[in-house]
Amino acid sequence: MLEINSVSAGYGALTALENISASLADGARLGIFGHNGAGKTTLLRCIIGAHAPSAGTVRLNGEPIIPGQVPATVRRGIAFVPQGHNVFPNLSVEENLTISGLLFDRSFVTEVMRLFPVLEERRSQRAGSMSGGEQQMLALGMAMMTQPKWLLLDEPSTGLAPVIVRNVMGQLAVVNKTFGTGLIIVEQNVPATLKVVESCLILKSGRAVYQGDAATLAAKPDLWEWF
Ligand code: ATP
């Protein structure tokens, strides 16, 4: 279980998040939406331990996430795919995956390639020469090499064509189903994300203005009024 308990956070005098709470059972799928500057990335950074909340705590299976100890958080089962295609461009696909699993089980490369067939097809290709969508799949595969219980994704659809966005979202659903990996997806593309997540949180100026199940939000004709 992942619990966000009354988390507030900021940067100096600026408040970026105010009193955010959420309780997620293992394998849950949460979408986090909101305009630029709403605090979405800051929330992900608090969850992974890259940013210290000014108040509140994040707990994984009852134990607090310690700010400043990101590698320890990753070892505890939370992986983070930051915005942009975070691959080593001069290494091959296989080398990128292997390096990501160095502290874990390197043989998991086979599982990841089974999950993302495009990576198997391109295993010897230099990552920097792949398309944006392929690089995003590789970034997902690299995160999966740590065999996470939770996968945090910051705007995975950025810069991708609609058909590729569908592929990426589809693969996330497969990851969730195959390994029971919980998903926390920060996105600007709300319709595409609502197809994958089961609950969502809309942030506005650091505050939660909607929190509930995805189907209810998807059915709202006035959905955009929340933003
Ligand atoms: P985006 O969609 O543009 O990535 P976001 O919803 O992820 O936005 P955050 O990046 O969490 O929002 O930013 C929340 C607020 O904190 C914004 O006002 C932003 O300018 C500010 N902020 C973010 N990072 C820093 C930083 N390193 N130093 C100072 N202020 C920051």
TrEMBL record:
Query: Keywords, A to Z?
Result: Amino-acid transport, ATP-binding, Nucleotide-binding, Transport
InterPro entries assigned: AAA+_ATPase, ABC_transporter-like_ATP-bd, ABC_transporter-like_CS, BCAA_Transport_ATP-bd_LivF, P-loop_NTPase
One annotated GO biological process: L-amino acid transport
Q: Which Gene3D superfamilies match?
A: P-loop containing nucleotide triphosphate hydrolases (3.40.50.300)
GO molecular function list: ATP binding; ATP hydrolysis activity; branched-chain amino acid transmembrane transporter activity
Note the superkingdom of the native organism.
Answer: Bacteria
A Pfam family annotated for this UniProt entry:
ABC_tran
User: Which SUPFAM superfamilies does this UniProt record tie to the protein?
Assistant: P-loop containing nucleoside triphosphate hydrolases
UniProt keyword annotation of rRNA-binding present: no
Locate the ABC transporter domain: which residues? Answer: 2-227
Family assignment from sequence similarity: Belongs to the ABC transporter superfamily.
Under PANTHER family, the record lists:
HIGH-AFFINITY BRANCHED-CHAIN AMINO ACID TRANSPORT ATP-BINDING PROTEIN LIVF (PTHR43820:SF4)
Q: What name is this protein filed under?
A: ABC transporter ATP-binding protein
Species the sequence originates in: Enterovirga aerilata
